[in-house]
Write a structure and sequence with these properties.
Elements: E1 2-7, E2 11-12, E3 15-16, H1 21-27, E4 33-36, E5 45-51, E6 56-62, E7 68-74, E8 83-87, E9 90-91, H2 97-106, E10 112-113, E11 118-121, E12 126-129, E13 150-154
Parallel strand pairs: 1-8
Antiparallel strand pairs: 1-2, 2-3, 4-5, 5-6, 6-7, 7-13, 8-9, 10-11, 11-12, 12-13
């Protein structure tokens, strides 16, 4: 089993906010390979790292000074994948959204709901969302996705 911790204010897995481009690229091989990068191959820009075994992606976002400022995680596509992406011990991609929201609020983390599916947790500099078009499990009553499929940890979530 692979377990990846979302670390608010820090990063995700081996990718740390503030690390240099070269440090981040050195950590990529244990995850898979960069499958997309901006023209020129150096920051600024987004670098999509595909984890082939578990069918999920991590996006590394760099500023002009070549430091990592945000990491996005996209939910795995294989429901049987032996991977957990956790926040404070809770699997963010397998815990129903309502239960995860409740858990975060009970832990003292207020959420900002934007009405279009991007839920911000400002004190953690974290955004959770349903942002993909992939057909994940849905609530049989409402037809809405049961789980989040996207998480962003960043050095800032508001301008």
């Amino acid at each position: 089993m692979m377990e990846i911790e979302v670390l608010p204010h820090v990063g995700l897995g081996p990718f740390r906010i503030g690390m240099t481009f070269d440090e981040a690229m050195a950590a990529v091989p244990e995850w898979g390979a960069v499958k997309h990068s901006p023209a020129g191959e150096r920051p600024p820009g987004k670098y999509v790292v595909a984890h082939e075994q578990f069918k999920f992606e991590v996006v590394l976002i760099f500023r002009e000074n070549e430091t990592l400022n945000s990491v996005e995680a996209w939910r795995f596509r294989d429901e049987d994948a032996d991977v957990r992406i956790t926040l404070e011990g809770t699997d963010i991609f397998r815990t129903p959204k309502r239960r995860l929201r409740q858990h975060l609020e009970e832990q003292g983390h207020p959420l900002d709901y934007d009405g279009i599916g991007f839920d911000a947790v400002p004190d953690l500099k974290l955004i959770l969302a349903n942002a993909s078009s992939y057909e994940y499990p849905k609530d049989p009553k409402t037809g809405a996705p049961l789980y989040y499929d996207y998480a962003l940890v960043s050095d800032q979530i508001y301008p």
